[in-house]
Design brief:
mainly alpha; two-stranded antiparallel ribbon; globular; binds heme C
Length: 416
């Protein structure tokens, strides 16, 4: 009796030990999973399908696929209702959503309100690994093709080929507009350091641009510099107008996601920090340390994105970011209201029979400037964190110019 009980107990303990040991081995192996990547130089020179690269780089592929988790795309109009008045006369007033993960580009560009298709094939320039190939195939005709003509040929979202040379895996620039803009600045694109490339691969798309009149060629307006003021001076010198505001009658220019331009001259940029330092921190996948390819808000993983350089703790960093962004949002709302005020005042003055045309023109010029300084901030992601000083400065300028536009518009009809 005693011995059989003892036997049972021994068996039970043995069974438990086996289970615990097996579990431990399983988790140990999972954590130390040996992930082998490479060999290099087996990927075709123009391999647009990232899944093919993923077969050789499985850890990077997993990280890249995690971009699917960044799936929210709320309308900009919810937090910035004044946008629709400011953008009247453009497709942006019809539908304008906040960005989401890199893997959604094709889905998003093809499901947007058709009012946005007017631009044509050029919309795909920053959405697909296939667009450089299309530019080669069609030459300058690419930019003149319709949205639908291009849509039928494009299936792949942003991927490996956009930033890497398939033979060496070195970072590279694939978008001609960036190469040309850097060359016009007198820079040798073959002599860019790796740290610069960790920012410039993003500057292929996270920049403002315009379509050259006639050719519709995507061009970066950087010849005078990349600050809001320098870009506006470039447009003014060229007498460039993207659209005429239907209510105010003003010749306007449109800013686009100027993350790179805003970042230039910031504290972090001056200290040599690159986009990839915050947005592609090192992470562990199994036993492998890789640069995260899940491009997202660094606030989702402050431990990896910031604390490598900052030892003040994650709470302090999070609060700093939130404080900056709150301040920017408040000033931006003031600027939004001020620009809408200018539009309303211009409408009244334009319809006034004996309006002073010269003063009305001055008021419109001030509206053009106010709109530009606000837009440069409003469509740039990060709510000012990338460069708080320049961002608040631009918003102050927007508010000042908009108020002056209101004054001038009233003066033009003798209402002051
Ligand atoms: C938006 C640009 C971009 C895209 C798209 C991209 N990468 Fe990268 N990749 C980078 C950057 C930046 C680095 C860091 C390079 C450095 O510091 O030298 C990097 C590094 C790497 C490395 C070197 C090891 C490491 O993790 O630092 C490999 C391998 C790699 N990427 C594979 C891929 C694969 C596979 C894909 C597609 C599934 C891909 N990358 C897509 C920008 C990109
Ligand atoms: C080929 C063009 C292209 C390149 C190169 C590129 N991006 Fe993007 N990026 C986009 C587009 C387009 C979106 C928006 C996608 C959507 O909403 O469908 C986006 C979205 C993002 C988002 C998500 C934004 C959000 O609000 O959730 C982040 C973060 C981001 N990019 C960072 C980077 C960084 C950092 C680099 C460089 C390492 C980079 N991107 C390179 C085009 C690009
Ligand atoms: C010092 C760290 C840092 C650097 C460097 C940096 N960013 Fe950011 N970025 C941030 C933070 C913080 C946010 C705000 C995230 C939020 O609001 O959730 C942000 C937001 C963004 C967003 C919007 C993402 C979202 O989810 O709202 C994009 C796109 C982006 N950055 C692109 C870039 C590009 C391109 C560069 C280089 C030109 C760059 N960033 C350099 C820290 C950085
Ligand atoms: C590669 C290093 C590096 C990374 C990564 C980095 N920073 Fe910084 N940060 C610096 C340096 C250098 C400075 C300037 C000197 C200082 O204030 O310590 C700075 C300054 C700052 C400042 C003061 C800014 C100012 O304009 O005065 C804030 C706030 C900040 N960082 C937040 C962040 C946040 C949030 C992240 C992550 C999203 C981050 N940093 C990632 C290096 C880094």
């Amino acid at each position: 009796m005693e011995t059989s009980k003892l036997k049972k107990l021994v068996l039970l303990v043995a069974a438990i030990i086996v289970v615990v040991a097996a579990t431990a081995v399983f988790f140990f192996n999972k954590h130390n999973q040996v992930i082998t990547e490479g060999p290099q130089s087996v990927i075709a020179a123009n391999e647009v399908k990232s899944a093919e690269w993923g077969k050789i780089y499985p850890a990077h592929w997993d990280s890249y696929m995690a971009n699917m988790n960044n799936a929210e795309k709320p309308s900009h109009f919810i937090t910035k209702p004044y946008m629709q008045t400011i953008y009247a006369g453009t497709g942006f007033a019809a539908e304008f959503n906040e960005p989401r993960g890199h893997l959604y580009t094709i889905q998003d560009v093809t499901s947007i309100n058709p009012a946005r298709y007017k631009i044509g094939a050029a919309c795909f320039t920053c959405k697909s690994t296939q667009s450089p190939e299309m530019m080669k195939k069609y030459g300058d005709q690419y930019y003149l093709m319709s949205f639908d003509e291009m849509k039928n040929q494009i299936t792949e979202p942003i991927g490996c080929l956009d930033c890497h040379d398939p033979k060496t895996m070195k970072l590279r620039i694939t978008r001609p507009a960036l190469i040309e803009a850097l060359q016009r600045q007198g820079r040798d694109v073959n002599k860019l350091s790796n740290q610069e490339m960790r920012t410039l691969v993003c500057a292929q798309c996270h920049v403002t641009y315009y379509f050259q009149p006639g050719t519709k060629k995507v061009t970066f307006p950087w010849d005078n510099g990349v600050s809001a003021q320098e870009i506006l001076s470039y447009y003014d010198e060229k007498n460039f107008t993207e659209w005429v505001h239907p209510i105010a009658g003003t010749n306007l220019v449109k800013a686009r996601h100027a993350e790179y331009e805003t970042y230039m001259g910031s504290t972090h940029q001056s200290a040599g920090v690159a986009c990839a330092d915050c947005h592609m921190p090192y992470i562990m996948v199994g036993n492998k340390k890789i640069s995260s390819h899940n491009w997202q808000s660094p606030l989702n993983n402050i431990e990896q994105s910031c604390t490598t350089c900052h030892r003040n703790g994650t709470e302090w960093l999070k609060t700093r970011v939130e404080t900056i962004q709150k301040q920017v949002k408040q000033s931006q709302d003031l600027a939004g209201a001020a620009v809408v005020g200018a539009i309303n005042e211009l409408k009244i003055s334009r319809e006034y029979p004996t309006v002073d045309k010269a003063k009305l023109q001055e008021a419109m010029k001030l509206h053009r400037e106010a709109q530009w300084y606000l837009d440069y901030v409003m469509v740039t992601n990060g709510y000012g964190f990338h460069n708080p000083t320049a961002t608040l400065d631009n918003l102050n300028t927007a508010i000042d110019k908009a108020h002056k536009s209101v004054e001038k518009a009233r003066e033009a009809r003798g209402a002051n």
